[in-house]
Design a protein that fits this description.
Length: about 160
């Protein structure tokens, strides 16, 4: 797989993938992609297979707005990057695409002199992060479901 930063020309194809892979409504996807294209410290990486987008990840240099996360991570939240979302087309799942996107995200964040990443996720995807050496730090309730908070600090 080739992994690279998103370009403006990827917008339409990525919006379609966000619907297929993560059930995101088109209006949300267009808004968030445009925001990430222009906002400093926000990034989208995409995974390509034969020029087709098959996965994506959204990252922020620092994300410390959520008090639920601050209660779990403390001041660490002010020092590490945030993995906002990651998804892979259903036809390409369990083939290492998400792990490759995680590694590329870690490389990008390290280059920005940020020492780690945190994320939150649903129970059904915790294995991905455990497999990639992320440590479970706690959980919180959101919309009647538990979200699990993981961290990876780079050496």
């Amino acid at each position: 797989y080739i992994i690279r930063k998103i370009k403006t020309s990827d917008l339409e194809e990525l919006v379609k993938l966000m619907q297929i892979a993560d059930y995101r409504p088109d209006h949300w996807s267009v808004h968030i992609i445009k925001k990430y294209l222009i906002k400093k410290g926000h990034y989208i990486l995409i995974a390509l297979n034969k020029n087709k987008i098959i996965g994506y990840v959204g990252l922020k240099d620092i994300e410390n707005e959520d008090e639920r996360i601050r209660k779990i991570l403390g001041d660490l939240v002010d020092k590490i990057g945030c993995l906002e979302w990651i998804a892979v087309h259903p036809d390409y799942r369990n083939r290492g695409v998400a792990s490759a996107l995680l590694r590329a995200s870690e490389t990008m964040i390290k280059k920005r002199k940020i020492t780690g990443l945190w994320l939150d996720c649903r129970k059904k995807v915790t294995q991905l992060y455990e497999k990639n050496n992320y440590l479970l730090k706690g959980n919180y309730s959101q919309d009647k479901s538990l979200k699990y908070v993981f961290v990876k600090i780079f050496n």
